[in-house]
Amino acid sequence: MDLNLIPKIKHTNSNNFFLLAGPCAIEGEDMALKIAEKIVAITDRLEIPYVFKGSFKKANRSRIDSFTGIGDDKALKVLRKVSETFDVPTVTDIHEISDAEKAAEYVDVLQIPAFLVRQTDLVVAAAKTGKVVNLKKGQFMSPEAMEHAVRKVKDSGSEKAWITERGTMFGYQDLLVDFRGIPTMKKFAPTVLDVTHSLQQPNQSSGVTGGRPDMIETIARAGVVNNVDGLFIETHFDPTNAKSDGANMLHLDYLEQLLSNLVAIKKLVNTF
């Protein structure tokens, strides 16, 4: 899929990977604008095609008292404000069929969560909006199985599909990334590596998902070396106090050095 089909996306001729990055969830307008401003400055400097990421609501929570959002309409308006302020495209996840049409009025990419990627009606509803559909590979699915998810998008009249690898369940409380799946999924659609969710440690007794942010650069480097089309990184200026997925997010202060290193690796990979 041609990245230039996405409104407002920049640096598409740089031969870099593209980037989906931002906080796990929209916690408010000020935090979203603060994070977006920093990432836009970095990606412009490094010439990385960039899409701001933020969930307008969180439906998959371990506990009933976990943060789910600031209100659907309010959060979607924040995503629109980010797009208008910084002239960048945006992506958010959807969980119900009715979310597709609603979110499509505000964002450029609709993301199907990993646990829901086999839900045919949801995938079809997203595809019919005409937006790019980012299909996150289920933790329980093989890379080969994602061909069928992509086919659902195409059979709905759209060629705008991405696949995102986000790790495979390894036991009850860990995930692993099988990099053999990257070339397999690239046959079906542009493929993104979700670096931070791949480092989650789910099913903790506390009811709060853990993570290994110390391994972010290790996984990201391996993804770039193995020619992923894009990277997905959740980042926050205060991960410890983030309202969702703080345990596996990258601190915003570390993003520029990480991306600089990855761009250098990408330039080397491009020579082969």
TrEMBL record:
This is 3-deoxy-8-phosphooctulonate synthase. Pathway: Bacterial outer membrane biogenesis; lipopolysaccharide biosynthesis; Carbohydrate biosynthesis; 3-deoxy-D-manno-octulosonate biosynthesis; 3-deoxy-D-manno-octulosonate from D-ribulose 5-phosphate: step 2/3. Its main location: cytoplasm. It is found in: Cytoplasm. One of its GO terms (cellular component) is cytoplasm. One of its GO terms (biological process) is lipopolysaccharide biosynthetic process. Keywords: Cytoplasm, Transferase. InterPro entries: Aldolase_TIM, DAHP1/KDSA, KDO8P_synthase. It catalyses: D-arabinose 5-phosphate + phosphoenolpyruvate + H2O = 3-deoxy-alpha-D-manno-2-octulosonate-8-phosphate + phosphate. SUPFAM superfamilies: Aldolase. Belongs to the KdsA family. Its EC number is 2.5.1.55. Residues 8-269 form the DAHP synthetase I/KDSA domain. GO terms for molecular function: 3-deoxy-8-phosphooctulonate synthase activity.
